[in-house]
């Protein structure tokens, strides 16, 4: 217990001291903001002097319209810049999701496509060779073995011969 505990009065005193310092800093920042605001308004918005004649009033309106046009152009440019950067941010977010593997793959539909159509889709107009995959297959001829095709005879005749008691007697006699 190398740390010494502070008394509650000492904690309260330090807390009130920190709050008073923070309050002073906030008031100073507010004064600086106000000075900055007035300086900006003096630079960009000169004081308005109301013209006395109709000609001066029209000239003032033209100047104001021109300033409005310039500001609208700047606003439009900034909006387009924001939209472009937002699109870039979205693209980068998608790339990050792809790299992290959290991207859910959509369910793909089965598409029946021949090898020629697939190559044409992948290679575009460069693909001119027709692939006939069956032509490349090796032809195999089946050899019929005589052993497998033994003469069984008429199965109905065999059944009739073995049916009844006579057939059973013949079976036993043939085995013996």
Structure description:
The chain is mainly α. It is built from five helices and no strands. The protein has helices at residues 8-44, 54-100, 115-123, 155-162, 164-175.
Helices and strands in order, then pairings?
Layout: H1 8-44, H2 54-100, H3 115-123, H4 155-162, H5 164-175
Give the termini separation: 109 Å
Largest sheet: none
Share in helix: 55-70%
Shape type: elongated
Strand content: under 5%
Please tell me how large the radius of gyration is: 49 Å
* Mean of all residue-level pLDDT scores: 79
Secondary structure class reads mainly alpha
Short note summarizing the structure:
The chain is mainly alpha-helical and 176 residues long.
Q: Any key phrases for this structure?
A:
single chain, 5 helices, 64% helix
């Amino acid at each position: 217990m190398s740390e010494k505990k502070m008394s509650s009065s000492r904690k309260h005193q330090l807390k009130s001291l920190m709050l008073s310092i923070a309050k002073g800093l906030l008031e100073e920042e507010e004064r600086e903001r106000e000075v900055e605001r007035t300086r900006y308004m003096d630079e960009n918005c000169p004081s308005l002097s109301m013209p006395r004649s109709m000609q001066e009033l029209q000239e003032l309106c033209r100047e104001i319209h021109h300033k409005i046009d310039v500001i609208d152009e700047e606003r439009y440019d900034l909006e387009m810049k924001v939209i472009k950067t937002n699109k870039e941010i979205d693209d980068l977010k998608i790339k990050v999701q792809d790299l992290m593997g959290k991207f859910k793959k959509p369910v793909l539909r089965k598409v029946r496509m021949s090898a020629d159509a697939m190559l044409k889709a992948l290679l575009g107009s460069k693909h001119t060779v027709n692939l006939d995959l069956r032509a490349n297959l090796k032809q195999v001829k089946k050899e019929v073995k005589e052993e497998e095709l033994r003469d069984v005879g008429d199965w109905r005749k065999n059944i009739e011969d073995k049916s009844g008691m006579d057939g059973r007697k013949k079976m036993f006699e043939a085995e013996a």
